[in-house]
Amino acid sequence: MKTVSKLAIALLCTTAALPAWAQDSAQTPDVAPAQDNGDENDAIVVTGIRESLQSSAQRKKNTNEVMDTISAEDIGKLPDNNVAATLSRVPGVQAYRFGGESASPVGQGSGLTIRGLSGQTSSQVDGRAFITAGGREFNVEGASPGLVAGIDVYKNPSAEHIEGGIGGLVNIRTRRPLDFTGTVVSGSIGGRYNDLGKKVQPELFLLGSSKWNVGDGEMGLLLVGSYSRSFNRGDNNPAGGGTSIRRAIRGNSPEYAANVGTGLNLNPAYAGRSDVTYLADVNPLTLAAADRANLVSTVTEGHNVFQEDYLRTRKGLAGSFQYKPTPNLEFYVDGNYTYYQYHQNYRFLNISNSRYVQNAATIPFTIDEMLANRNSNGGTNELLSGTRLASGTFLGSTAASIGGDERSNYVSYLLAGGAKWQVSDEFDVHFDYSYVKADRSTDNRSVTLTSRAGLTWDVTRDLTTKPAQLGISGPDLSSPANWVFNNYSNGNNQAWDDNSGAAALDLRYRPRDSFIKALKVGARYSVLESRYNNHSFGRSLTTDGAGLAANQSNAIAVLPYADMFETAPNNVMAGEMGYSGGYLVFSPDALLGDNVRARFPNAGILPEDSLAENLLSRRYIRERTYAVYGAADFAFLDDRIQGNIGVRAVRAEGFARAMVNSQASPTSPIVIIPNETDTSRWDVLPSANLSWRITPNTILRLGYGKGITRASTDALNPAISVNTVTGTGNKGNPDLGPQKADNFDISLEHYFSPVNYAAVALFYKNVKGFFSGISQCETVSTYPAYTGTVANNCTGGQYYINQTVNAQNGWAKGFEISGQTFLDYDFMPKFLHNFGVSGSFTYVDTKNPLILNGILTDTPQPFTSKYNWTASGFYEDDFLTARVVYTYRSESILFNVAGNPIDGRYIRPFGLLDASVSFKLLPELTLSLNAENLTKVAADRFVGEPGMMTGIERQHFYNGRNFSAALRFRFGK
Known about the structure:
Elements: H1 2-21, H2 39-42, H3 48-61, E1 67-71, H4 83-87, E2 93-95, E3 97-98, E4 101-102, E5 112-114, E6 117-118, E7 121-125, E8 128-129, E9 150-154, E10 168-173, E11 184-194, E12 199-214, E13 217-236, E14 245-250, H5 254-258, E15 276-281, H6 289-292, E16 296-297, E17 305-326, E18 329-352, E19 356-368, H7 369-373, E20 383-422, E21 427-451, E22 457-462, E23 469-473, E24 483-490, E25 494-509, E26 516-534, E27 537-540, E28 565-567, E29 584-586, H8 595-599, E30 619-636, E31 641-661, E32 672-695, E33 698-709, E34 720-723, E35 728-731, E36 739-751, E37 757-778, E38 799-822, E39 835-852, E40 855-859, E41 867-876, E42 880-889, E43 892-893, E44 905-907, E45 910-922, E46 925-932, E47 941-945, E48 948-955, E49 957-958, E50 962-971
């Protein structure tokens, strides 16, 4: 890790040093005043790598905020085929990766971590708030890259920006007709191929824009559409964590013989065999320390076989109309539609290992109380076991297979209109109204099969390799005769229905002959409504509709339903784990419509268009915000000192409704009633930015801003659920306040030319009110008093309730180094002038205190790598454009820190290599080729967490490589 970091830093230092040697000969650009960089920069239509880098560099240079930006290399062409992947090239930004692409975790949130904070970004399109239903962020993996002109990442937003993300603000810029000089028609047609899935999918894009002179003014209309599909295949082998500590009893031992037919009731077939060991349960703390050293952990013994296909469909439509009757007055209407479907077919083989292991081999591996449970009992950190299972054959194991189809649909559209009026040389007025409608639905269906009673397999495993090796010997896993039905599940059938409207008024006054360059005030009103419904359910597929009996007396044989089945691919992980697939699964396509309902009338499955709602899951959230801001831009000492200062005040009024159970006693009928709450709060958010232009091309920036991230709508749900048997429960928190952060920034930038620059930035975010779960005894008025026999540490009929609250304070701090340059300096050979390099390195340290196993523990933020760097080399001339990019991330926590470290999962360090090349066949025609993940690396998951990493692989992924080709055309400018 240290070596990799040093290499990254060396690369970046080289990037910075090259132009430093030649700064006297490099061209010095004219510098525009930072306060005047608004719409003018947006009107630049760039083509090629050089112009793209120049546009980004100049936007960064001519702002008084802490910002990085990426510009499209041409109409409809971002550097990557995925918006989230493009954002991962920005210093300080990391993207989660799943299914062969940059993606949001479990389809929720943006999938982005900015400066160490995940789930803390604010999303905008052309400066307007934009969301995915059910969340505060926009799921950027669903954005259509062809619609994007550029992306700005504000890491410490000023008072003018809409509040909502302490990590940062991501603003996606789209194109408008008056950006162009005349009529433009541009488009592309292409395809995308995954070398593991062996399928080609289309990528289409078309833009048309025109403008006309009207009297003293002009008007323009732009329409753009895109359609793309990507197919990725993901083979993986998930296993469980946990201590799984066992005591080995050899088949030829007296203890084994003593437990045949009694005690442990061991299998007599293995009695007397020296090559067979029974792994018995044991409580380590009942043994002496010396004996514990010989105990065996079987952590990750159960690697299963998962084969998954990921089909992602993206559709985008956008339109913009601008009318400027005079140069000082503009009316506009904008529209943006985004459709994204994540469609996964999955084929799982789950093996239930027996406890009888032939030729068991172990290796040293220490599990102590800290690794097991954070030594939650206090005192000495006792040894629990000293070895782990390395390899062996599990005799007499059983199997289950699952065939499933998951479809998650995301639809977001935005309609907006407004006017910009430059009343005079000093005074501007801007009014904007926007409406966002966002829907999201998830439908995840599956059928589980169980191996026929009496059938077993001998399963050979080697847990020391990556991936873990697997061999299966026994009855044919592809034969329908060896399986019976178990159940049908639609356990993730959910729908979110959100809408929001916002009206904003911004006024700007520019005094003459004053160090105050602009005075800005504004107001914004918005309302957000979010509805959630759940229709999840499951049914047994048996002769009597009851659960599958242990002796399978009510089982339904698979053989008569052979038309509903298929075999999984027989090249799982390309054979790298030994066993290569070919097992029987219920066909994902056979799950569609009411097919299962029609074939299994005894299961009680309702028609898919009239499923029963789980009323206790229903919720409704309404949030109104009233915001005002005031800010001033200033500049003095011949504009060498520039900056802004401002404050934003926001009042948020919330209403939440959940459905709760109000039964008189545990045996009484369930009575469902609404539970409603009202909340309100003020937040005052000051900000200040100062830029000192030490020279026209060297800028020192200082920044401060207070930001907030509001809780997700599901966390504000006033739902209450309890278990009347155990006396425990969960409770939502409509009073959950936003997480707050004081953000401090200092950066130094030097621009060697309009394109080339080097920068270093330090940041510190002091975060208050991190969300944390607490448990306490409470009286629950909507449930009868607890009278159960299970101890819950409460008295007086109270329940032990878990609730999320604003609890602890933490931080995110670190530094970023970035730079880019073409090698076009006078002292370099001419043939190098078309070559260039760029790169960035980010170090971030986070502290997120959580109560785990009753212990306040400082944990890192999930999905955050402490070290992250990207390095790119490129070439561009009049005919050929080429780029190669390598992006590296150190280890990070998956999802959240587990209470017990050995139950946790961390993502190992990994790096991705991508490449692209374009050929300009004609002035209007370009052929582009792209390759992603050339090294076929994935975000493999391991047991433990940073600080307690075990090196034991828990889930290995094999995704293959993606290749794409597109023919792009453009007529007009």
